[in-house]
Amino acid sequence: MAKKYYWEIEEAETDTESGEPTGNTLTHRVELVCSKLTGKALITINGTKFDISEKPFSLCGTQQMFRLGDMPAQISFNKKGAPTITVDNQVFEAKK
């Protein structure tokens, strides 16, 4: 059975020309539908869907890299519990 998870992660907005912080924040929304049994995993990042599926029973213990705006991020499929997202060494738990 597939489970659904989501995260809302904020990023400080920077000016595209100067690279200076603008003082505003951007909120990135990440949604995940996955099944550890079948290995199917669909991640939606700010409205764009990606298939990050693995072989059956092999999703647990894997990690996938992706970008949230200008920030590198990593999703970890933990052997126990919900997946987590790490951005700049900060771990984000899924919201319910």
Structure commentary:
The chain is an all-beta fold. It contains no helices and eight strands. The strands form two sheets. Strands 1-2-3-4 form a four-stranded antiparallel β-sheet, with no helix packed on it. A four-stranded antiparallel β-sheet has the order 5-6-7-8, with no helix packed on it. Strand 5 and strand 6 (71-76) form a beta hairpin.
**Strand residue percentage:** over 45%
Bulk shape:
elongated
What is the number of strand segments?
A: 8
Sheet with the most strands: spatial strand order: 1-2-3-4
- Sequence stretches where pLDDT stays below 50 over 5 or more residues: none
Share of helix among residues? under 10%
Helix segment count? 0
Describe the largest sheet. Answer: 4 strands, antiparallel
Class computed from helices, strands and strand pairing = mainly beta
Order of helices and strands: EEEEEEEE
> How many angstroms does the end-to-end distance come to?
17 Å
Backbone CA Rg: 15 Å
Q: What is the averaged pLDDT score?
A: 92
Notable features of this structure?
96 residues, mainly beta, four-stranded antiparallel beta sheet
Task: Set out the fold topology.
Layout: E1 3-14, E2 21-34, E3 41-45, E4 48-51, E5 63-68, E6 71-76, E7 84-87, E8 90-93
Antiparallel strand pairs: 1-2, 2-3, 3-4, 5-6, 6-7, 7-8
Question: Could you give a quick summary of the protein structure above?
Answer:
The protein is built from no helices and 8 strands. It is mainly beta.
